[in-house]
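Review this fold:
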Amino acid sequence: MADRVCAKFVSKKIRKVRWQPPVTFGRHNPECFVTGSWDDEQNEVSFWNTIQPNEQNIDPVLVSTVPVSGDVNDIAFYDTSTFFVALGNGSIAMMRLDQKLTMISQWKDIHLFKSTKAPATGVLCQSPEIASIGEDGKLNLMRMNQEKPYKTIDADSCSLNAAVFTSQNEIFTGNSRGMIKLWDLRSISEKPILSTSLSEDSEVGVTSMDRHPFQGHIVAVGGYDGMLTVYDMRKAQTPVTVMEASDNCLNDLRFHPERADHLFTASESGAVWHWMYLEVRNTSSAQFSETDCSTLLLKIDSALHYVWEQLHTGQWKDVDPEWRKLYSYVSLFKALLCLELGKDEGSGLVNAIAACDMGLIMGEPILDGLLSNIADILNEKLWMLSETKRAIQENQKEHEDSNGCYPQMNKENFVETVHVPSIETFLLDIMDKKPVVITGVMDSWPAMSESRWSVDYLRKVAGYRTVPIEIGSKYTDDAWSQSLTTVNEFIDNYILTSNATAGYLAQYQLFQQIPQLKKDILVPDYCYLGTCDEIQVNAWFGPRGTISPLHYDPDHNFLSQVVGSKYIRLYSEEVTSSLYPHEQDLLFNTSQVDVEHPDLEHFPLFPSAPFLETILESGSMLYLPPRMWHYVRSLSTSFSVSFWWK
């Protein structure tokens, strides 16, 4: 029990209390916290400070308050200064702590019954994702810069009472009838990947949840019956531990953020219990208790989770490179342990290659590309071990994709085509002056000949590699999001299967992650005419219908078409005012206009802007001068490579 308890009368019914997260791991006791009230004439969120000039006075001081409409049902911090509030009027509010508390914005009425507002019962954050649950049974997914949820899942027919992220792409939910479900946010279907019940004998509702701060697969669940249940999500059908925490409903529970063997529960009776050395390991699983490797793997997962949190605190550009390097080294250790634990099973190879790729995606290059070399070897071995090689009818697929999607074009607007211009010709007549389609330069690429990039070849070289993809036809859509998947899964779900939601491996430095593919392409000699030696090479792989909205880039660009074809429309910088760029800072270089279906009532000047257009076919590359507006739509399954240079 605590040596000293401070009690302060605040004249409000307080439902939630959340401490401000520390800026750095291991800092002394936190100094500030926020509270939210409920069932008052005027509910409010309050900001409190515990630092006192007089050490004799231990009462917290109220710094500021913000009135809110509706009960405060939940509070979740996004980072050290920004947090979100779930309100009883069905809205989610974003607030920020500085010298005082301020309301930034709201997602209004995102939880609704058929004719009335449904209370939002919970909010949770796993940067960049924000999720909310409500009494309407819906699970909403949001991002900071979006005006409304980009995805809504009808998760239940009754109230969702609690939820928690178990990983970057998975959410654990509990409802008022005691059903617990695990959701994969990358899944196209609205079906849980796992479902179980808190109690087999009766419908005991879930009231609260929290995730182990270092082992994301460990989740503690509180119930209306006062029972505390701990699940290991790797074997979630059966709880690891079930204990009676109270005779009354458990209103809230929280793991200590740094001392994870300590858990705190608060019950409706007014009691707060402190649980020490809570056993959260699944002792029924021999493989996790008999070897030193499995114990070490749990510790490595804890370390990776902590470094992940550091990588996702604040802006990516502001992250200290040492954190990224540390993530790579820990990922390397995890890959080696996965190989040792699964040396007699294919799952060991799969887990090891996934660890390598996460280190490559989130980390920094280490040890002369060791992670990449290991992943290449493992991918080749997995390919060799696969029982069947899928025969792909590429030509038929591309023919089906291309049918009926070509736009009507005017020859007067065609982009000029030049066959292998000399360096002198390019420098004097083309560079910085005009866009041109260049043919012949890619003829010597291995990707265009013996290593042609068929679907089967991509599976062989990179099928088991984890890559980031975009979900949605274009990045300006409200429903646009990002996810991690393997190349095999991407091909199966988006390339070979017709899907209402497009998937796109877009603007990604794939060749840095998978050097074997880099051997199949050649950097055009023209790129070396620039003022900087750094050339950024990106991959663009997706099905028919993926769109890059009308936008411009600050650098020179060679868009090189390896597989399939794309329709491209170009506008000069001089007509920018007729293209209606977004006013937001993040999209200042992107037009608001849907190029092929413009809203002329809102954008009346757009039709008057002159443009050029072309269909970029396999084996051709398009040179784009800096700041030239361009719109791109794939006409078939397509793989392009862009070279950006200054």
